[in-house]
Specification:
19% helix; Molybdopterin molybdenumtransferase; Molybdopterin biosynthesis moeA protein, domain 3; Molybdenum Cofactor Biosythetic Enzyme, Chain A; 6-stranded mixed β-sheet; 403 residues; binds ligand LQZAQKY5; binds molybdate ion; 5-stranded mixed β-sheet; metal-binding
Length: 403
């Protein structure tokens, strides 16, 4: 069979990123925004705190009323009111104190809070044994966030702290690029979901693995197994999911040279192209569109499938919803042992990174069937296409899969 030149990894990365593109911004409830990226800045609709309040459990007073207080000569003030957190506050008359709890509104007329430790804790009359300056233990309205200021810029990743801030400000909806919806479909007539496979069958691992990877990339996964060769029924599944709204159809299996390949048979005649990329593992790849959805067809070997996902799909998914860091963090580390790599192919080899030592240990053989080794790895060692061997101690690029 004639062979055509292999496509570079960078070219195929660009193609997949272009196919997925950028999703249109849409409002989503705050409770569904974790990990997404703001498409518009958020302006504070009000100040934080929204009212002057106490930073301590103690007594609200006028600082001048307790200016002469000392342990030997405490100042005694009548306790005119009790202000638990959540109560509306009130007015403090000169020469009196209000017992106040942390977070409760400062009464008008008070300008300091004395912590309870500096008093006898009295409930009718309180003896205060030290002076406090005006402003002591008061959290003034707007000291944290002033109404009208930009609290989060467009492009900010929404994490727990951002969600906390938005909730405090009463913002219940944010405008983001939505999570891409991904149909993850394992194909292969040898595959089963039955925990007890028949002779010659194996359990499908890729749909579970890729669905997890999709979710981990911040997208939504719809997981399917298609174990038959029947093209019309396979297309029927895709059509139904397209109707339900899918941004990416992600298949695994059936992209190489086999005789019965439902993916190729169904999608090849419909414009999806099947190419070879200069990469190991993950050489055979498919890509294109079907209906309104992007299509990425990954090889079936589990290691090839997940490594291909890391290289092509994960960055494109993250870029599609505007993530500022679509790619994994890359660090430099020294190989603990010598490696070899096929000429003309970029090799992404599983490894174990020791950040403290600045070393990386190749983890398992380079072949694409070693799922056991894959599960023990925490990084990918990125060997350029022109490298065929490296000695122990050589420094390499390493993709940190934990970040
Ligand atoms: N004559 C050629 N044969 C192969 C070539 C080639 O260029 N010429 N490429 C090899 C490479 S490289 C790869 S990678 C694989 C890719 O094959 P397919 O994408 O067609 O995958 P399958 O044949 O369907 O499966 C390969 C292997 O992986 C197992 N598998 C598949 N799906 C799953 C799943 N969901 N869960 C668990 N395991 C799965 C399958 O049983 C096979 O063992 O092709 C080479 N061959
Ligand atoms: O390219 Mo295949 O993914 O090496 O086994």
């Amino acid at each position: 069979m004639p062979t055509s030149p292999l496509r570079s990894v960078a070219d195929h990365q660009r193609r997949i990123a272009d196919l997925l593109g950028s999703l249109a911004p849409t409002p989503v409830p705050l409770t569904e925004a974790r990990g997404l990226v703001l498409a518009e800045p958020v302006t504070a609709p009000e100040s934080l705190p929204s009212f002057d309040n106490s930073a301590m459990d103690g007594y609200a007073v006028r600082a001048e009323d307790i200016a002469d207080a000392s342990p030997d000569s405490p100042v005694r003030l009548p306790v005119a009111a009790d202000i638990p957190a959540g109560s509306p506050g009130g007015d403090l008359a000169p020469g009196t104190a209000h017992r106040i709890m942390t977070g409760a509104p400062l009464p008008r007329g008070a300008d300091a809070v004395v912590e309870v430790e500096l008093t006898d804790g009295g409930t009718d009359v309180v003896a205060i044994t030290g002076a406090r300056e005006a402003g002591s233990f008061i959290r003034s309205a707007g000291v944290d966030v002033a109404a009208g200021t930009t609290v989060l810029d467009a492009g900010a990743v929404i994490g727990p702290a951002q969600i906390g801030l938005l909730a405090a400000l009463g913002v219940r909806e944010v405008v983001v690029r939505p999570r891409p919806r991904v149909l993850v479909c394992s194909t292969g007539s040898e595959l089963t979901e039955d925990p007890e496979p028949d002779a010659g069958q194996i359990r499908d691992s890729n749909s579970f693995m890729l669905a997890a990877a999709v979710e981990d990339a911040g997208a939504v996964a719809i997981r399917r197994l298609w174990a038959a060769d029947d093209v019309p029924t396979f297309l029927g599944i895709l059509d139904a999911e397209l109707d339900a709204g899918v941004d990416l159809i992600l298949t695994s299996g059936g992209v190489s040279a086999g005789a019965y390949e439902v993916v190729k048979d169904a999608l090849g005649p419909r414009g999806v192209e099947f190419t070879k990329v200069a990469m190991q593992p993950g050489m055979p790849q498919g890509s294109g569109t079907y209906g309104d959805a992007a299509v990425v067809c990954l090889p079936g070997n589990p290691v090839s499938s997940l490594v291909s996902f890391e290289v092509f799909v994960r960055p494109a998914l993250r870029a599609s919803y505007g993530h500022p860091r679509p790619h994994r963090r890359v660090v430099r580390a020294a190989l603990t042992e010598a490696v070899t790599s096929p000429a003309g192919k970029r090799q992404l080899r599983r490894g174990r990174l020791d950040p403290a030592a600045g070393t990386v240990e190749p983890w398992g053989p380079p072949g694409s069937g070693f799922l056991g080794w894959l599960a023990g790895a925490d990084c990918l060692i990125d060997l350029p296409a022109d490298v065929t061997s490296l000695d122990a101690g050589a420094t390499v690029d390493v993709w940190d899969l934990t970040d």
